[in-house]
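Appendix B, example 12.
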Amino acid sequence: MDEPIIGLQDVCLTLGDYEALRDVNVTFPEGRSTVIMGPSGCGKSTLLKVAAGLIPPDEGKVLFRGQDMFLLHEREMRMLRSTNGFVFQDGALWENKSLFENLALPLQVSHPEISAADIGRRVMRALERAGLGDSGGQRPAALSGGEKKMASFLRALVTEPTLIFLDEPTLSVDFTMMESVTQMIRDRKARGATIIAVTHDAQLTATLADRLVVMDTGRVIASGEFAEVRKTKDARTREILSQVLGEIASYDTDLLALLDGGGGDDTN
């Protein structure tokens, strides 16, 4: 279960004149949940998209089960895509398709063996679970920002993926939707899915994180088990951790010790 399913080796990426990723080396173990955190603009979402195979690096390798993801044959890449789900920060829905069609399309592409009737049942079940059963015929333009984010989340999970990428999945959603999203993520985690998430949501981090990856200015400055990373003595890593873990403590008093390592002398 701890074997890496995704690994980045010496990955560098420049977007325009901006160095988005710099000499990134990090692995994501199979069956574990990893939260990527860091200040705004540090490269978290870019790292997530590179790890998912959506953006190729300028240098370095992105490995999927030990194979270079960007050298996979078309059939192998299709198989990889069929087991993946990606929740985009901005929703990224197809504007010319209804909400129902947005959710049905991944099933149609990745699982052509499924009948149209079965696809319809799966899509409606997902929409109804999220309270969007009456909105299936609407286009994204008619939806609120929270509804668009929920639709993106449902679209990512409708294929029952075993590898899930989440880019701020609870951003712009109301409390009820946030609770629904969090519960669905818990369900996928309980079923053994590998989850890699970028989030500023303290409650979701407390619920989700087995492992932490801490980023700053395009670099990974710490990674490992949650309990290990929080004990770091590196001042910048601790500063970044305190911003998120301080909020987590307001949700769960048992996590207060994460800020000071149990009251030791290693605080900065």
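Confidence is low (pLDDT under 50) at residues 249-268. The first helix runs from residue 44 to 51.
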